[in-house]
Recover the amino acids of this structure.
């Protein structure tokens, strides 16, 4: 219930009756303040007129006023600047560390807000707010989508910046690791990031002009050039394969030269993967991309159009892998270029976030602006999340739209965090007689 009290205060969904302190002084809420999600009072810099005096300070909210003492606020100087204590139940007076009594106000969560919130929590249809989406004003949807898109880019920025910190501040290495992670296309993402941490780019750079040597280091550091890494039923054929033997021999030499230690091959997943997604194929594609000098940060920042980015991410496999998906097992010849679909995913999840993150890091707004422009030029992703929102009535045209809706699903819907969602806000504030009951809507669709 305390969350709902926060919500009511923040959005000023207060009772229509005059507000007053427990000792009868009238209250006017001029500004509810800035919601604080960290330690300290719940709202900073609120403006509240109590009687004839305008107070500027903090506001603390609890289910019951006695929670003030339960949480130890009477012994915490951080709460001495609280100018108003708000509670659903007033069961005692409260004081700060100076012994001063703090004005209190009791508020009730409006019944319609409680009812609408409970509907959101118990509705089986997904997302639970589906009924209100067709009724929302386009400006409301547009503003929320824009905010979600920025939020998702900032979230990815933090992940990239954290990689750069782990890599001794090297944004070049952070870009390579981000690219590698997304070459896992979900299933092997963690494994590819771990693999990238085993690739000493400064050493590999000495052999960049030799694609075979690059592939040997990439495969070897993945732990995939040992007999133990091959399933037992294919092991004899694989180990006898001349290309496997050549790569193994070359990797042994390079590993000794650069003191390399491979990762555990058990980290790779092959089960239920389509053959074109096998780590062997993805590593060969990455080796070609690296050999062709398409993995540098400077080249990324030089790209100004979607076409330039797509051309930069375009890659293939070495000759051996055109006729193989695993060692020792020949298959029909296929160049195994990255598909346009896969390239667009790499643009959405690697190139554009990296451009935005690097723009933030270097304070170059043109990179950040370009990231947003590129998202608006790319076609929207196609997956179950996007189809779900489309069925609810949301128009999804660009990658910016699809990224916003993925953020909405993962960070709000999955967490049942409707109180922070603008669609949830519109749902909660609607009068009951303007909404159809959930069971009626579900029955009408069945």
């Amino acid at each position: 219930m305390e969350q709902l009290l926060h919500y009511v205060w923040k959005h000023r969904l207060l009772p229509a009756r005059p507000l007053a302190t427990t000792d009868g002084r009238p209250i006017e809420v001029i500004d509810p303040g800035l919601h604080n999600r960290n330690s300290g009072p719940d709202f900073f810099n609120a403006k509240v007129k109590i009687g004839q005096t305008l107070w500027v300070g903090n506001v603390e909210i609890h289910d019951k006023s006695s929670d003030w003492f339960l949480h130890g606020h009477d012994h915490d100087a951080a709460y001495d600047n609280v100018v108003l204590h708000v509670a659903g139940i007033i069961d005692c007076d409260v004081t700060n560390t100076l012994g001063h009594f703090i004005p209190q106000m009791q508020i009730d969560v409006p019944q319609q807000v409680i009812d609408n919130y409970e509907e959101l929590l118990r509705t089986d249809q997904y997302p639970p707010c589906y009924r209100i989406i067709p009724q929302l004003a386009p400006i409301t949807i547009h503003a929320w989508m824009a905010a979600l898109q920025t939020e998702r880019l900032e979230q990815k920025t933090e992940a990239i910046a954290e990689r750069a910190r782990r890599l001794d501040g090297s944004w070049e290495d952070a870009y390579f690791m981000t690219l590698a992670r997304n070459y896992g296309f979900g299933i092997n993402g963690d494994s590819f990031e771990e693999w990238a941490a085993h690739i000493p780019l400064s050493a590999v750079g000495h052999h960049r002009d030799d694609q075979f040597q690059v592939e040997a280091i990439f495969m070897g550091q993945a732990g995939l050039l040992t007999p133990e890494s091959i399933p037992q039923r294919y092991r004899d054929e694989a180990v006898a394969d001349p290309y496997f033997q050549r790569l193994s021999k070359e990797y042994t030499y390079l590993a000794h030269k650069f003191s390399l230690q491979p990762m555990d091959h058990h980290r790779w997943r092959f089960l239920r993967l389509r053959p074109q997604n096998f780590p062997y194929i993805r590593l060969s594609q990455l080796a070609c991309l690296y050999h062709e000098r398409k993995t540098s940060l400077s080249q990324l920042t030089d790209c100004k159009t979607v076409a330039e980015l797509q051309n930069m991410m375009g890659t293939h496999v070495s000759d051996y892998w055109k006729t193989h998906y695993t060692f020792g097992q020949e298959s029909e010849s296929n160049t195994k270029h990255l598909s346009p679909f896969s390239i667009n995913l790499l643009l959405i999840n690697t190139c554009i976030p990296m451009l935005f993150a690097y723009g933030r890091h270097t304070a170059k707004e043109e990179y950040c602006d370009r990231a947003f422009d590129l998202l608006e030029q790319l076609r929207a992703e196609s997956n179950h999340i996007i189809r779900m929102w489309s069925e609810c009535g949301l128009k999804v045209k660009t990658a910016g739209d699809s990224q916003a809706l993925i953020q909405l699903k993962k960070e709000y819907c999955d967490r049942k965090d409707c109180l922070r969602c603008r669609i949830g806000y519109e749902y909660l504030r609607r009068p009951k007689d303007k909404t159809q009951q959930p069971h009626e809507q579900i029955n009408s669709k069945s």
